[in-house]
Amino acid sequence: MRKTIFITGGAGFIGSHIIEHYESECDIVIYDDLSTGKESNIPQKPNIKFIKGDIRNRGELTAAMENADIVFHLAAEISVAASMERPIETEEINAIGTINVLEAMKKNNVKTIVYASSAAVYGENPECPKRTDMLPEPISPYAITKLSGEHYIRMYGRTSGIKGIITRFFNVFGERQDPASPYAAAVPIFIRKALSGAEINVHGDGEQTRDFIYVKDLVTYLDALSRTDGGTFNIGYGSFTTINSIVARITALTDSKSRVAHTPPRAGDIKF
Ligand code: NAD
Fold it and tell me: In ligand 1, which atom is closest to the CA atom of 41?
C-alpha cells in the first residue's frame, strides 16, 4: 500500500532532500511555518501537499497529520547562536514542539517517528568519534532541547508504542543549504564568500573539528534506519575535519583570493 510521509520542517534544506527521496513512491505531507524554509523547495506535484503551520499549534498539527504512516520530525529552531539569544522560544519550538508532534501521532495512531537530533548533544566531551553510549553534555539551549526531544520520544516509545528512530546529525552540507540566512552554516557561507572574493570569517582559531556529511548520504541513512526497530544513531562519516582545512579546500577549489579573518569564538559552540 502507498505510504503517506509527514515531514515537519519539510520546506527546509534537509527536508527538501527527504521529499526528493520519497516523491516517486509515496504521498508526502509537509508541515512547515516557513520561518527558515522556502515554499520553492517543495515540488508542485499532486502527491505532495504543503500545509503552512507551526508545530507549536497543537490543533492544526493534529489535523494535518491525519492519514500519516510515518513522521520525519525536522522542524526546529536550528541555530545554536539563536538559541543562546532566545532560550525560551527554543524550548517552545524544539522541546514542547516535539511533545506536540508525539501527541498528534498518538491521536492519529501514527507509530513511527524519525527525529532530527544533533551531534551538539555531546557538548564539550573531546573524545572522537562520538559514541551514542557517551554521556550527553549539552551546552546550549539548542542542544539541551534536542536532547529533551530525544527523551520524550523514548518515553512515548515505552508508554504509547511509538517507534522512535533518534538520529544525531553531524554537520550536513549540500544543495539548497541557504548561505543568506542570519544563522547560515559554515560551508555555504564559505563557498559564497570564496566565489565573490569577500573576506571569510572563521570563529576562533579554526582548529575546531566537525564531521561534515553530504545531505544525500544522510537521507540514505535516514531511509535505511526508518526500517529498523528504532534506537539512537549517529549520522556522520566518523571522520573529522578542522574548519581551517575546509576553508583551505573551498578557497583552493574556487581559486579564490578571499582573505581569511579570525573572529572571537561563538558562545555555545563546541570545539570537537
Ligand atoms: P532548515 O532551517 O533548512 O529546516 C528547518 C525547517 O523547519 C524550516 O523549513 C523551517 O521553516 C521549519 N520550522 C522551524 N520552526 C518551525 C515551527 N515552529 N513550526 C513548523 N516549522 C518550523 O534546517 P536544516 O538544516 O534542514 O535542519 C533540519 C533539522 O536537522 C533540524 O531539526 C536541525 O536541528 C537538524 N540538524 C541539522 C544539521 C545541519 O547540519 N544542517 C545538523 C544537526 C541537526
Answer: 9
Residue nearest to atom 31 of ligand 1 (CA): 74
| Residue 85 cell numbers, joined | 539569544
Q: Which of 74, 212, 214, 217 to mutate to test the pocket of ligand 1 (most atoms within 8 A of CB)?
A: 74
DSSP calls for 74-91: --S---HHHHHH-HHHHI
Percent above pLDDT 70 for the chain:
100
**Ligand 1 environment, Cβ below 6 A:** 8-9, 11-15, 32-37, 54-56, 74-76, 78, 93, 97, 116, 118, 169, 171-172, 185
142 noted as active-site residue: yes
The predicted-structure confidence for 67-118, as pLDDT tens digits, reads as follows 999 999 999 999 999 999 999 999 999 999 999 999 999 999 999 999 999 9
pLDDT digits (tens, 9 = 90+) for 142-181: 999 999 999 999 999 999 999 999 999 999 999 999 998 8
Q: Supply the residue whose CA is at minimum distance from atom 1 of ligand 1.
A: 12
Q: Which of 22, 142, 152, 156 is catalytic?
A: 142
| pTM metric for this prediction | 0.96
